[in-house]
Amino acid sequence: MHSHFQPVDLTKAYRLLNHGPTVLVSASHAGVDNVMAAAWACALDFDPPKVTVVLDKSARTRQLVEGSGWFVLQVPNAAQARLTHQVGNQSLFDQPDKLARIGVELARVAGFEAPLVNGCSAWLMCRVIDEPHNQQTYDLFIGEVVAAWADDRVFRDGHWAYEHADPDWRSLHYVAGGHFYAIGEPLVIDQGE
Amino acid sequence: MHSHFQPVDLTKAYRLLNHGPTVLVSASHAGVDNVMAAAWACALDFDPPKVTVVLDKSARTRQLVEGSGWFVLQVPNAAQARLTHQVGNQSLFDQPDKLARIGVELARVAGFEAPLVNGCSAWLMCRVIDEPHNQQTYDLFIGEVVAAWADDRVFRDGHWAYEHADPDWRSLHYVAGGHFYAIGEPLVIDQGE
């Protein structure tokens, strides 16, 4: 990855998801890579950081997560709104060249098999904490975040800097039917109050 | 509640949380009401709609949820940023008059014990699906949404209308240390693409 790809302290990793962005979920198993979109991802714990994500049984990416025991949650941005919608609406089952058609570029970090999607704002490398009842009953997966990175043009010193970055870096917040909202203005409450 | 308080079809209830807002969690048990803030709440299923929310063992509200088996997730707005921060940073354990001090006004809907916070944009009435392992190990609670309502000045016909409403209605997306972002502009992807 490029020079703006910087590690995030694990104790601050929850902040990458705390504002509720829609994420991309990527995984790899037995030589197959895939990426899907998920609005239902959430922080679960601070230290060690954990996350939840809902992965439907119809999703090819879910099989890769189950097969490998790993996934990456990454925070896409306004420049990737079309890509985010497309990876969420096309299945690798139907379109084996899905990623190439959409123009998804993957990268890897030494030591990890799961791929990262280029151009995102932040990435959380997660190891599945096996919870078969949650996975079968609720399609709910729990992961421990073992490494995290962010693009320092939009997240630095442990904080999102949306208000100082190009609007293309804004996070995406999916509603339904191709409609997203981008993240907006900061609102700061005086700590003494 | 007032004339703008309108029911939301349960099949659309997930849309109230899909964009990842910070929520208020309210509950009541044995004559005690409380309200807390939670950034870690998420949709879990469409139909019947389910949600997850993380409730720390130190939270008085958690005891009320465990005691009653019910909670309400509600979506606060920019006009309530200070209230949201304050209910998240004061404990009923320390301040028995917490809600009055902060100015939280509660309302009730016939047939339900759990209270709703006045002035929010949307409300989801949730019955706890008992999952002791998740609750003890991860502080993770699962609820089935049995009723939902929204203020039709900001959510109507199954859709958020932030772009047509006063900025005071924007949802809050908490980061850390009193810093929120408000939801921003709509981004719409052509469905044919």
How would you characterize the overall build of this protein?
The structure is a homodimer of 193-residue chains. Chain A has 193 residues and is α+β, with helices and mostly antiparallel strands. The first copy, chain A, has a single domain, classed as Electron Transport, Fmn-binding Protein, Chain A (Pnp Oxidase, Chain A). Helices cover 16% and strands 40% of the residues of chain A. In chain A, strands 1, 2, 3, 4, 5, 6, 9 and 10 form an 8-stranded antiparallel beta sheet that branches. In chain A, a hairpin with a 2-residue loop joins strand 2 and strand 3 (32-38). The model of chain A has no long low-confidence stretch (mean pLDDT 96). Chains A and B meet through strand 4, strand 5, helix 2, helix 4 and strand 12 of A and strand 4, strand 5, helix 2, helix 4 and strand 12 of B. Strand 14 of chain A pairs antiparallel with strand 14 (179-188) of chain B.
